[in-house]
Amino acid sequence: MNKFNWFWAVLAFNFSAQAQSGWKEMEWETYSISFKVPESFEITESTADIFTASGEDFTLTISPWKDASISVEEVANKALGSLSADDVTITSHEKIDLNGFEGYEILGTGYQDDRPLLFVVLGFIDPDGETNFSAYILFWHDENKNQENIDIATQIIEGIRKM
Q: How far, in Å, are 7, 35, 77, 141, 147 from residue 11 at the CA level?
């Protein structure tokens, strides 16, 4: 398989990952969004323009899009276009449900600072509001940690919801 594609094949079929201990709730109060993240995550930025939390090998970033006229797929593709990575390969993309949001997920691989990177780009729309959102979940490719990191990314995605 090309690059790290088999990791993403596992992620695409592994959305029933069971909750692990060592998780906590975080909120982006500005937009009434909450999500579940590993306990090691700390908020590094929380403004009206961006929310970023990072853990050991992960970064989660969420940004608003103030354009209710575009589709959830377009939001995700615009976010993908803003991803700071080289040699990007998309391994899967699909519409998903995000607990009150309409979502679209793009999985892939690339390089950042000449290091192999795995990522999830999300576009999601609040069907009851005018603000759309994009999110990035990024982590470094590491043969010893990829499955664990894929499980963590899956649980973060499953935990995103409207408050």
A: 6, 18, 20, 14, 9
Q: 99-132: string of b/e by CB count within 10 Å (b at 16+)?
A: ebbbbbbbbbbbebeeeebbbbbbbbbbeeeeeb
For residue 9, the one-letter residue type is: A
Task: Classify the C-alpha dihedral 29-33-38-41 as positive or negative.
Answer: negative
Q: 89: which 2 tokens?
A: 């390969």
- Report yes or no: 65 and 49 within 8 Å, Cβ to Cβ: no
State the 10-residue block means of pLDDT for the chain, 163 residues long.
Answer: 48 41 90 92 95 90 87 92 93 92 94 94 89 92 89 92 88
Q: What residue has token string 């729309």?
A: 125
- Classify 103 in phi/psi space as left (phi over 0), alpha (psi -120 to 50) or beta: beta
The DSSP-derived string for 67-125 is -TTS-HHHHHHHHHHH---EEEEEEEEEEEEETTEEEEEEEEEEEETTEEEEEEEEEEE
Q: What is the C-alpha separation between 124 and 102, in angstroms, rounded? A: 5
Instruction: Round to the nearest angstrom and report the end-to-end CA distance of the chain.
Output: 40
In angstroms, the CA 149 to CA 147 distance is 5
What type of residue is 99?
A: N
